[in-house]
Amino acid sequence: MERPRSPGPAATLADAAPASATLAQLLQLVQQGRELPGLEKRHIAATHGEPTASRLPRRPKPWEGAALAESPHPRPQASPTLSKGMAPAEAATAPS
Amino acid sequence: MSTARGGAARTLRVPGRHGYAAEFSPYLPGRLACAASQHYGIAGGGTLLIVDQIESGLRLFRSFDWNDGLFDVTWSENNEHVLVTGSGDGSLQLWDTAKAAGPLQVYKEHTQEVYSVDWSQTRGEQLVVSGSWDQTVKLWDPTVGKSLCTFRGHESVIYSTIWSPHIPGCFASASGDQTLRIWDAKATGVRIVIPAHQAEILSCDWCKYNENLLVTGAVDCSLRGWDLRNVRQPVFELLGHTYAIRRVKFSPFHASVLASCSYDFTVRFWNFSKPDPLLETVEHHTEFTCGLDLSLQSPTQVADCSWDETIKIYDPACLTVPA
C-alpha cells in the first residue's frame, strides 16, 4: 500500500477519510504513469563532514537502573548468552 | 478495557509529510526524531524532523530533506547530535542535528527500500543494523564507509530489525516471509527461525526485563509473545486491532507493558500479564499510524506519528496509574 509491494489491507482505502481518497488518487496516477502533483525532485548529496563532538555522557537505560536499585521490575537473568537462551525449556511461561 | 483519548496530546502539524517512524532522543528529554515521506512514501522525497517539546506544545527544531522517502530513524548511543535514517532508495544516511546541512554520510548498498535501522543498545558496541526489502540485513559501523556484514536467509522483504537490549551482538528481524529470526552478529548466521504468524510480520521488539522474550506484530492484526527457550507456541497473544499492526514496542519501565500502532489508526496499550490485557485504545489519528515510541525519561510519555501529517506527544491515562 505504501509502495506497490506493501502490506496493509486494501479495504481501508475505501473506508477512510479524505486523506485516503488522496492516497487512492495518488496510486491511480502512479499506475497510469502520470506525474504526481507537487513532486519534489531533489539532488542532495553527503557533505562528508565530521559529526559535532559529543558533550553528554550516555544515560543509563531504565532497565539498567533496575538491576542496581531496589525496584518492582524483574531483574534480567544473569550472564546473558544466546546459547543459554536457546536451550529448550519444559514449559514456556510469560514472566509476570 | 477502556477507550480513552490520550489526555491533552501536544501536536505538530507537518503538511505534506507522512510520518513513518518516531524515536525519542536517548540524551535529551522531550527531543523527538521523526522520519517522514512525501506522498505517503509512494514517490517523492523524505524529511527527517527534529522536534522539541516546549511548554506551549511542540516546536520544530530542525528538518533535513532527502531525495527519497525516509522510513525509519535511530539515534546514536554515543553522540547526542547523531542519527541514522533508512530510505526508499536503498541508502542509509548519517545526520548531525547541530549542523544545518546534511547528511554527513550516505551508505548505499541495499538494492531496495531500507525499512528499518537500529543502533545497538548494549554498552561497548556502536553498530547499526538495517533491514531492507532486498531481503537482506546489513551491519554497519557508522565510522566505516561500507557495511561490515550482510545476513541472508529471509525469503521476503524485511520490515523490522531490532538489537537485543541485553545480549551483545544479538538482533531480531521480522519479515514478510512470516518468520521472526534471531541472529548472532559474531556468527554471521541465523540462530533461531520462528514461524511466528501466518501473515506478514511488520514489527518486533525485545522485552527490556526478560532477555528471552520478544513480541511480534503482524498483518493478521495480532501481537504474539515469544520465549526463545521454547518457540513452539507463543506465550501470549493480544487481539483487538482491526487492521495490520505496523509497529510494536515494549515499555522501557514495565516488564509486561507494551504499545502498538496500526493501520486501524489506533495506538493500543497492553499488559500481557493481566486477564484483560488491553489497557487503553488511543484514537487521535485519522490515518494509518506508523511511528511509535515510549520515552526513556518519563514512564508515562509516548510519541507517535501518522499519515494524517501530525506528530503527537502525550501521556495516556493507563500509564499514569500503576500498570
TrEMBL record, chain A:
Start and end residues of each stretch annotated as Disordered: 45-96
Record-annotated Peroxisomal membrane protein PEX14-like KPWE domain positions: 18-64
One Pfam family recorded for the sequence: KPWE_dom
Domain of life: Eukaryota
Designated name of the protein: Peroxisomal membrane protein PEX14-like KPWE domain-containing protein
Organism: Microcebus murinus (Gray mouse lemur)
From TrEMBL, chain B:
Alphabetical keyword list: Cytoplasm, Peroxisome, Protein transport, Repeat, Transport, WD repeat
Gene3D superfamilies, per database record: YVTN repeat-like/Quinoprotein amine dehydrogenase (2.130.10.10)
One of the record's GO cellular component terms: cytosol
GO function terms (MF aspect): enzyme binding; peroxisome matrix targeting signal-2 binding; protein homodimerization activity
Major localization listed first in the record, in broad terms: cytoplasm
Pfam families with a match to the protein in the record: WD40 (PF00400)
InterPro entries (UniProt xref): PEX7, WD40/YVTN_repeat-like_dom_sf, WD40_PAC1, WD40_repeat_CS, WD40_repeat_dom_sf, WD40_rpt
Alphabetical GO biological process terms: endochondral ossification; ether lipid biosynthetic process; fatty acid beta-oxidation; neuron migration; protein import into peroxisome matrix; protein targeting to peroxisome
Top-level taxon: Eukaryota
Residues in WD repeats: 73-96, 107-150, 151-184, 194-230, 238-280
Cell compartments where the protein resides: Cytoplasm, Cytosol; Peroxisome matrix
Family: Belongs to the WD repeat peroxin-7 family.
Quaternary state and interactors: Interacts with PEX5; interaction only takes place when PEX7 is associated with cargo proteins. Interacts with VWA8.
Function: Receptor required for the peroxisomal import of proteins containing a C-terminal PTS2-type peroxisomal targeting signal. Specifically binds to cargo proteins containing a PTS2 peroxisomal targeting signal in the cytosol. Cargo protein-binding triggers interaction with PEX5 and formation of a ternary complex composed of PEX5 and PEX7 along with PTS2-containing cargo proteins, which is tranlocated into peroxisomes by passing through the PEX13-PEX14 docking complex.
Protein name listed in UniProt: Peroxisomal targeting signal 2 receptor
Species of origin: Microcebus murinus (Gray mouse lemur)
Species classification: Eukaryota, Metazoa, Chordata, Craniata, Vertebrata
